[in-house]
Write a structure and sequence with these properties.
It is a single chain. By secondary structure, the protein is mainly α. About 65% of the residues lie in helices and about 0% in strands. It is built from seven helices and no strands. Helix 1 packs parallel to helix 3 (about 40-55). The longest helix is centred in the N-terminal third of the chain and has 18 residues, at about 5-20. The relative contact order is 0.12.
Length: about 160
């Protein structure tokens, strides 16, 4: 049985935070922070894939974040918030089997737990905006039932 993804995402956050601050070799960080996940191969695989993909795509992810936080200086954003946003956008773009709602809800909960008092609302707003934009650009490619909300299925409340 694999660990709950929330626990795994928290480890990913910790590993990316350690990498952001130390710039130590990522394999060493993965071993130190997420090594105990190896007993749960699915969890470890997900953690490692997400960590490496976020690092690989940081410039692209940061560009998407910058486009949505025009009124803030990017360098002044809380490091934890930045990492949570990177992780979540990475999941939206590159992890086809994770529903966008799950990604955003997890990000909000992790921000609530690990960041500042208003971070959950900030993360939610930025991710909603980015998701809408990515959908308009047809960049969200999810596979499986119920993975992408479609506006035509929502009842109208007029």
């Amino acid at each position: 049985m694999s660990l709950r993804r929330r626990v795994v995402r928290e480890r990913v956050l910790q590993a990316l935070f350690a990498f952001e601050l130390s710039h130590e070799p990522i394999q060493m960080i993965i071993e130190n922070i997420a090594g105990d996940l190896e007993k749960q191969p699915e969890s470890f695989k997900f953690a490692k894939q997400l960590i490496l993909k976020v690092i690989e795509c940081t410039k692209e992810l940061d560009t998407l974040i910058r486009q949505r936080v025009e009124h803030w200086e990017f360098n002044r954003l809380a490091i934890i918030d930045k990492i949570i946003l990177r992780m979540s956008i990475c999941e939206l773009l590159y992890f086809d089997d994770i529903p966008p709602k799950v990604t955003i809800n997890e990000a909000i909960e992790i921000a609530r737990e690990y960041s500042t008092e208003k971070s959950d609302k900030f993360v939610n707003g930025v991710l909603d905006s980015i998701l809408d934009n990515l959908k308009k650009q047809d960049r969200i490619k999810k596979t499986g039932r119920g993975l992408v909300d479609t506006k035509t299925n929502k009842p109208s409340h007029k």
